[in-house]
Design a protein that fits this description.
The chain contains 22 helices and 2 strands.
Length: 513
């Protein structure tokens, strides 16, 4: 195992040289700045912002493109806490827990303290996640090099099932969205035979459905429609967000450090699991902090631990989510699926070979995380007044401009109006899915992983001369498929228990006389 880390120092030096180049520094700054802005403004979110800016990455170097998109991803979590603390409107889903104690602190005149400490917690959690990525990615890659087509197919099946059954909402609906995403991914010409599939005679679908159009529609347009009026009725107290009001007390610092440590540990673990991510990590960190507290009644009334634990957890999860994506090529969230799509579009195959074939890209991205987190520390403390003014812009003036940029962005990819119509269609589908309670994330994961699954299953069958038992005979593949089956059974049993509990008649409890 020690041999895995022998070249770590050289790799870190290589990555630092790549990350500190002028162009990559500029794109890192642009990414974290845009991430902060879209995090502050509720209703847009990192996924919608990445979808809108996805076309720009086609004209960039792959390393610069990934650095910018990653900066938007973890930068939005920093910015998302601002609206959650000041207005009780989470800028991102993962900062919804921060509002439970952050907003009461703001109401009590301690909004500045909450903003400062949430930024510190975000930096601490992000730093722990980056360290874990640096230490464990080489180890995971060494073992993953023994994987073949059968193992990769089994891993992707496990990732899709986990993402659809562990995440919020009905597991059946999640699996249905995965199947729909895989179906969308099969549209176009067959990669082996060249036969047309589900094109219905349309020339615009010969190359398949555009990932940009699908992501912009499902997440960008649908998100804007759903949240078009949520900011117009809120008021903002500016008195608690001045720089002089940000100084925490010694008691705040004393109670914050253990909460940050526990939150970072929880977030680092859940960030690596498919289908969980920063939102689940933040909720679990908050629940664990409340349970371990000597006085749980303080939570929900403005305690500092209620801010520090979820903020450190969601930022740690943001960073460790890159571990399975970059080392195994298995995205655990829709945002990671988009980053995976950016690699594929640039002709780079994600997986364990990435660290050996593209070490400058991998380690440059890792070291850019340190730079990005430092930049966010600078952006979020002195410039808090700017983010407060941004919150005062009426949302009904923002979303038409965002829709315009979506249309321009998707048109510039292939210079065809067909993609704009696709965005409109997927926007309607995404909004309808929201109304019916269907999660969009499993659909995007199925869309990205579906073609890769097809490629690996056909390659495995070619190697085994058509024998499907190859997936069972190989020990690693068999183990992963058994784990997938157990996860499906566990999810089904859990759903049945919930239904029985909901259908069971309420039994009145009589007080003792």
């Amino acid at each position: 195992m020690s041999g895995v880390f022998d070249g770590l120092g050289g790799n870190l030096a290589l990555g630092l040289g790549v990350a500190l180049s002028f162009s990559n520094l500029a794109y890192c700054f642009l990414g974290v700045l845009l991430g902060t802005v879209v995090g502050v403004i509720p209703g847009i979110g990192a996924l919608a912002a990445i979808s809108m800016l996805f076309p720009i990455t086609f004209h960039l170097d792959p390393t610069a493109a990934l650095i910018m998109l990653a900066g938007i991803w973890y930068g939005s979590t920093y910015g998302g806490s601002t609206a959650a603390i000041l207005l009780n409107i989470p800028g991102t889903p993962s900062t919804a827990v921060t509002a439970l104690d952050g907003y009461p602190m703001s109401r009590n005149g301690r909004g500045g303290v909450a903003l400062l400490m949430s930024t510190v917690a975000s930096f601490a959690g992000g730093s722990v996640g980056i360290l874990l990525m640096m230490l464990f990615s080489p180890l995971i890659t060494q073992y993953a090099l023994s994987f073949g087509a059968a193992e990769y197919f089994a891993l992707m099946v496990l990732g899709l099932v986990a993402a659809s059954t562990i995440s919020e909402g009905s597991a059946v609906k999640g699996l249905a969205m995965v199947v729909l995403g895989i179906a969308f991914g099969t549209v176009g010409m067959d990669i082996y035979t060249g036969a047309e599939r589900f094109t219905f005679g349309s020339m615009g679908l010969l190359d398949g459905i555009s990932l940009v159009a699908l992501a912009m529609g499902i997440f960008g347009v649908a998100e804007i429609i759903a949240s078009r009026s949520q900011m117009d009725h809120k008021t903002l107290d500016r008195t608690s967000v001045s720089l002089s009001a940000m100084k925490p007390t010694r008691d705040d610092v004393r109670r914050s450090i253990p909460a940050m440590i526990r939150g970072s540990a929880i977030g680092s673990f859940f960030g690596t699991l498919p289908g969980t991510g920063p939102s689940v990590a933040a909720f679990i960190a908050y629940a664990a902090e409340k349970r371990s507290s000597r006085d749980p009644s303080r939570f929900g009334k403005g305690t500092i631990e209620g801010v520090m634990a979820p903020e450190s957890a969601n930022n740690a999860a943001d960073q460790t989510a890159f571990i399975p994506t970059m080392t195994l090529g298995i995205p655990g969230s829709p945002t990671m699926a988009l980053l995976l799509g950016a690699l594929i579009i640039h002709g780079i195959s994600p997986g364990p070979q990435l660290m050996t074939t593209q070490p400058d890209l991998f380690w440059g991205l890792v070291m850019s995380f340190w730079i990005g987190n430092l930049l966010l520390l600078i952006l979020n403390i002195p410039l808090v007044g700017l983010w407060v003014r941004l919150l005062l812009i009426p949302y009904h003036l923002l979303y038409p401009a965002v829709l315009m940029f979506i249309c321009i962005g998707v048109y510039t990819v292939n210079n065809t109006a067909f993609d704009v119509w696709l965005v409109a269609a997927f926007g309607a589908i995404g909004y309808l899915m929201r109304l019916l309670g269907f999660q969009a994330a499993p659909l995007l994961l199925g869309f990205v992983l579906g073609p890769l699954m097809e490629e690996h299953v056909r390659r495995a069958l070619l190697i085994s001369r058509g024998d499907p038992m190859t997936f069972i005979e190989r020990p690693i593949s068999c183990t992963i498929l058994v784990a997938t089956l157990l996860l499906l059974v566990w999810s089904g049993v859990g759903a049945l228990r919930k239904r029985r509990a909901a259908d069971a008649p309420a039994v009145p409890v009589l007080a003792d006389e």
